Amino acid sequence: MKVFVQPGFAILRGHAFFSTGIEPLDIAAAGSSERRDRVVLRLDPTANSIALTVLEGVAGGEAIDVTQTDTGIYELSLGLVRVSPGVTNVAADAIIEGRRYSGSRVGTWTTNTRPTTPRVSQLGLNRTTKAWEYWDGAAWADLAPTVTWSNISGRPTAFAPAAHSHGWSDLTDKPTTFPPSSHTHDWGAVSGKPTTFPPVTHSHSWSSITGRPSTFAPSSHSHGSYLEAGDTISWANGTKRVHNDSVSGSGTYYAVWVQGDGTFARNTSSLRFKQNVRDHDIAPKAVLALRPRIYDRRPKEGSDDYQRNEFGLIAEEVAEHLPEIVTRDENGIVDALRYDLLGVALLPVVQNQAKRIERLEALVEELRQ
Length: 369
Prior knowledge:
- The protein is α+β, with helices and mostly antiparallel strands.
- The chain has 3 helices and 18 strands.
- Strands 6-5-7-8 form a 4-stranded antiparallel sheet, with no helix packed on it.
- Mean pLDDT is 85; it is low at 233-246.
């Protein structure tokens, strides 16, 4: 096996060493036990040489220590190589850094005049971008990136209001009058009340009638033009309508919501139906974290038939990232998704990507120039 030492510069007891190319070093295969080899830079004054050398370790033991004498051999440890039984290549995580930190200078440059062979952690001021940057081993990284709400990780999606109060004069849209709420009066406290009450035309609710029958024998009757048990509604104009109407013509059509009490309501979006309108930030990462799923419906009780391979989202998973489009039942339990709002939530993702593309195009044009 082999490890490769990158180009670099070193001084060993006053002797300079400068490598301009990548230098391969042989690593012997391991036996039955793991060992640790040490890669050193060895100064040999007698031979007047500095060379890269591998100190092969003892199987099952620690790495061999470096030799450092005042007038003879002097070795500088660059790192350790963990050699495991049965491996045929040295993995990146098997290299253990061994060079001691010896300081670094802060530089200044433009984007076009950056160091071509920077050291890891080399720091400098880029006069082109007017930002401090450092070399992380693979690319130039911003030392102090701009922090915005959208790139903060772990930020809350909602804020519970703290206990507070408002003065009556500070409230807007407050009512000028208040209709009386439901209440009762003691009969003795009512003044000017009549002593007798002649009967007037009136009605009684069924629940207020005492002695009412619990069942009614059916009278002779017939049915017509009504759906009976087992009947189906035929398809008409793409929908199963009860009445024989049509979607043709210039009529206005609305999307329909089913409210919590089971009644229907048309979906309106005009500003004249809304108040307290304000912006709402949605993190693009929250939308991109949603996971499309394939699933089977649970069968109804007493039935083996159920829908299979349905395509959609899981409400509990969506609630972790985008609770704004999740609905809950009367007990506060996650129940359904507002799929009609998913398109609205996608708008910040598209807008964010459009801005990123615009910035990248500007950067490409700058580099081209």
